[in-house]
Amino acid sequence: MIKRASVAAGVALLTLGSHLAIADGPAPATPPPDPLTTVVCRDREDPSVGATLVFDLARNLLVSSSNVGDTILFGDRNVRVHVNPAAIEWEVAYNTYTLNRATLELDVIGRVYFCQLAQRLL
After folding, report:
1. Contact of 17 with 38, CB cutoff 8 Å
2. DSSP state, residue 59
């Protein structure tokens, strides 16, 4: 008798739980994460000089770069990058670029830029 009551109670809880799940409906769809990472950089000595870099790190790609002021970052697009835990590195026109992932400093042939991740707009 106790066994039968336990089984009946368990079935009742399962049934109640499934009705509640059906009543709630499916969870709202979560938008996929944005695969792009935007980094804004400014020259250490002259903050009026800098660049905006857009990376697709999953695809190892510098999607685009745009410059502000006198810099050697000139609208590079779809450039392969080497991503490792310490840095993101790429080369354009025999110039090597290194973005330190820990300090977010961009070294462009000895010229250092301080960078920060751009805020994402909703």
Report:
1. no
2. G
Say how many Å lie between the first and final Cα of the chain, rounded: 59
Choosing among 1.10.1740, 2.40.128, 2.60.40, 3.40.50, the CATH entry for 36-117 is 2.40.128
pLDDT in tens, 84-110: 999 999 999 888 999 999 999 999 888
pTM above 0.70, yes or no: no
Question: d(Cα 41, Cα 104) in Å, to the nearest integer?
Answer: 9
> What distance in Å separates the CA atoms of residue 62 and residue 80, rounded to the nearest whole number?
6
C-alpha distances in Å from residue 120, one per residue of 7, 37, 62, 64, 117: 52, 9, 18, 17, 9
Domains in the chain: boundaries: 36-117
Report which residue type is found at 122.
Answer: L
DSSP annotation of 29: P
Do 58 and 35 meet the contact criterion of CB atoms below 8 Å apart? yes
What single-letter DSSP state applies at residue 57? G
Report residue 15 as tokens. Answer: 């049934």
